[in-house]
Amino acid sequence: MLKLGSNQRPLEQENANQNCCNSGDRQLSGVLGMCPCATGGTGTQFYVCLKPLAAFDKKFVAIGRSVMGMNALLLLLQRQLVPCDANTQRPAGDALFIKKIDVFID
To answer: Please, is 21 exposed, middle or buried when counting C-beta atoms within 10 Å of its C-beta (0-12, 13-18, 19+)?
Structure first.
């Protein structure tokens, strides 16, 4: 199973010896994290890092890491981004929906 990170390098090489959930919540390529809603409510937003995000380190919780499929996420970036409603943070137009996602617990 090929795990791709930035510059098409395997994530194992890019994140060598850094378990995303045990490295001080480092936000590296492929890390799945969660943060509070932008509206200040009690909800939670989930995100996947497409590149290292030092600004998120130790600020938001890393809860997992992509083991495959990063190429699909990078393809999503090539699409036109849909603007979000400023109040609800929901897509204001036609959105792209993920129909299936598999979660593996190791």
So the answer is: middle
Mean pLDDT of 53-67: 84
Residue 73, sorted as left (phi over 0), alpha (psi -120 to 50) or beta, turns out to be alpha
Instruction: Name beta bridge partners: 61.
Output: 34
Mode of pairing for the β-strands spanning 44-48 and 61-65? unpaired
Task: Decide: pTM greater than 0.85.
Answer: no
Contact 9, 36 (CB under 8 A): no
Sheet holding 61-65, edge to edge: 44-48, 31-36, 61-65
Comparing CA positions, the residue from 61, 58, 26, 59 lying closest to residue 47 is 61
DSSP state of 43: -
